[in-house]
Amino acid sequence: xxxxAEFCWNELMTRDLEGAKAFYSAVLGWTxxxxxxxxxxxxxxxxxxxVAGLFLxxxxxxxxxxxHWFSYIATDDLxxxxxxxxxxxxxxxxxxxxxxxxxxxxxxxxxxxxxxxSQMRADPA
Length: 125
Description:
The chain is of the alpha+beta class. It has helices spanning about 15-30, 80-85, and strands at about 5-15, 30-35, 40-45, 50-55, 70-75, 90-100, 100-110, 115-120. Strands 2-3-4-1-5-8-7-6 form an eight-stranded mixed β-sheet.
């Protein structure tokens, strides 16, 4: 599931978690489990296999941004991938940070498209 240079995770960024869960449950048969105590991130599952995340967009950081699907590409060396990306003209939106067993970063490619890069951490503490 985590192969470098391949898409490895997708998240729905939305302001309506309940509407999204109802829609994807009806259309795709997904079930959902909360990932955090605040209820702002949910894991979508198909036959108990995680298939996507749903993220509640709240606050000023998301003002003017429409709901959308956001994708991550796997890398085996996030620092090297970020250097290559910025050398190639990418703009860093959010530098690398740790979340669960992953280290991720968000950038804009040279066309302005937002993308996440992700590396599985060796120490998933």
